[in-house]
Amino acid sequence: MSGVSPAVNETSDPAESTLVRAARRQPVTHTPVWFMRQAGRSLPEYRALRKGIPMLEACRRPAIVTEVTLQPVRRHGVDAAILFSDIVVPLAAVGVDLDIVPGTGPVIAKPVRTREDLDRIPELTPEHVPDISQSVRLLVGELGGTPLIGFAGAPFTLASYLVEGGPSRNHERTKALMYGDPGLWHDLCDRLAQISGAFLRVQAEAGASVVQLFDSWVGALPRADYETFVLPHSTRALAAVADLAVPRIHFGVGTGELLASMGSAGAEVVGVDFRVSLTDALRRLDGRYAVQGNLDPAVLFAPWAVVEAQVRRIVDEGRVAPGHVFNLGHGVLPDTDPAVLTRVVDLVHEISQR
Ligand code: 1CP
Question: Residues lining ligand 1, CB < 6 A?
Answer without folding.
Answer: 36-41, 55, 82, 84, 86-87, 100, 102, 105-106, 151, 157, 167, 214, 216, 331
